[in-house]
Every structure is written in C-alpha cells, then in structure tokens.
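Q&A log
Question type: sequence-to-structure
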Amino acid sequence: MAKKRIINDGQTDPNKILPMAYYWAREHYKNGIANNWSPEEISMQQDVEQWKSPTALSERERRLILWNLGFFSTAESLTANNIVLAVYRHVTNPECRQYLLRQAFEEAIHTDTFIYCCDSLGLDPDQIYNMYNTIPSIAEKDEFVIELTKSIFDPNFKTQGVENVRRFVRDLVGYYVIMEGIFFYAGFAMMLALKRQNKMIGVGEQFEYIMRDESVHLAFGCDLINTIKAENPEIWTPDFQDEIVGLIKKAVTLEKRYAHDACPEGLLGINAQQFTDYVEYIADRRLERIGLLRVYFKENPLPWMSQVTDLNKEKNFFETRVTEYQSAGSLEWD
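Response status: OK
Response body:
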C-alpha cells in the first residue's frame, strides 16, 4: 500500500479515518475534547459590578478591555473562516479533518465568549465589532493576515505543484503561527495582568480557557506545517525560509505597535516595552517550532505568565507530548 500523504493524496478516502497515519492529529483532537468548556459556565457577576462601578476600573483599563475584546472578536471569526473555507478543503487526511472540525467548534465557542462578554457588560456591539475598522493597529493586523492568505480562498486554487504548496504553507503560517501564535499573545498577557489584580475575573478566566485552546491549535498547526515540509522537502528552500522569517518579523512589528497603542503609558505594573519583549520571546519559540532560527533572543519578561496560564505545558504541546490536561469542569484557577 502506498504511504499516505497529508495533502495531494489521491489514494486517501477522507471518509475512512482508520487506519490512521498521523497519530499526533488524534492526540490534539483528544486534548481539545479534554479542555471542553463554554462561556456560560463562568460567572460574570463581579465583572458586571466592576464595570458599572465608577472607581473599580481606570479609564485606561476600560480602554484596554474594549480594545482586546474588539480585536479578538473579529480575529476569531477570521480564523474560523480560514479553517472551514480553506484549510479543511485542502487537508484531506481524515484524522486531521477530525481535528479541524473540533477546532472550528472551539472557534465558535470563542466567538460566543465575546457575545457573552458584550451582553453581560452591556457593551455596544457596533463599537466592539467595528474596531478592526476604527483602530489602526487592529486593522493593520487583520489586513496583514487577510492579504497573506487571500489567494487560497480562490475556489480554483489547488495545492498541486511546488509553488501552490508554498502558498498553502504560507497560509498555515499566517493563521496558526502569526494570528494564533503571535497576534493573540500580547492581548492574553494584558487581560491576565488584569486578572492578577482581581479585576475582571470572569473575562480573565475565559481568556485562560481560550489560551489553552489556542495552545493546542498552535501545536496542531505547527505539526501540520512540519509534516507538509517533510513530505514536500523541495518547498523548504533558503529563500522560502527567509520569506517566512520576514513575515514573522513583520507580524512582531505589528503586534508591538498594537501593544504600545493599547497600553501606551504602562498598566498594572507592566509597561509597553515588557509586552513587546514578551511578543519577541514568543516569536522565537514559534520560529524554532517550525524549524527556523531564533531572531530576538529575549528572555521571558513576564515569568508570571508561566504560572497563570501554565505555559510550561505549551512546550509539551509543541513537542506533541501533552500532559496533565483535564476537562474544563475540573480545572482550578488560582
């Protein structure tokens, strides 16, 4: 029997999940199931009281919350559209498709999270969902990923041929490595910094759950990219590697600009430079995960993130040795 391939495999019946070829995809699916949750499980009563209080939150804190809700509300929709309309169509391996269906469900949960937050806090949805049009540093991030991945939404696009495989990998880098692996992380740090100060606990817990989901998404995406590279080694030329590094460096620049815009004067004992150093630290980890060299060589400036969000597990995700994951209903947040 011919060896299975993750794309461009005319021998594979996408309706037959057994026998499996890519057990890492199955493991990511099981880890997603283990983190099952819904936003309504989390109480927002304290958040509502703080949001209504004239003194519980500063104007800068309120602005930061609104900006992050605004960015994530549209970014999650962009990611879901990419999975359903592009990635699923071209990755015909059945166990990978099973995981993509799980991820699409999780993206729907994340979208529902921002609906739940808006409804609970009485926010203006037009303000939140139009920030990608009204806030330049949010618009720049969304436009960068949309432009990067635009071509494979062409209904006539196929993954046959070296250049088309590269275009597909570029899309995967855009959504998994850049959008979910870099663009989300300054926002995570900001919202979890608030939670550390006992502010907006409900929103913070939901961001913790989202971050756990995103860690698995990122691990799956990197495994998918690395498998395509291994099965199509001709695509991974020095020039293409330089192109990917350049895209990630541009993404870091955009995320640093967003961090300075969202938190210009520092907040909760953290200044914008620490957020930007954290983005560079995260970017180096993403580069190494897809077989590229580090660029920034930064130490983690926010070591408390490892304690709050258990980022030590993130390394296990990247090495596809996920440990100690448990169902959302039994998780305990310090």
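Response note: The chain has one domain: 40-319.
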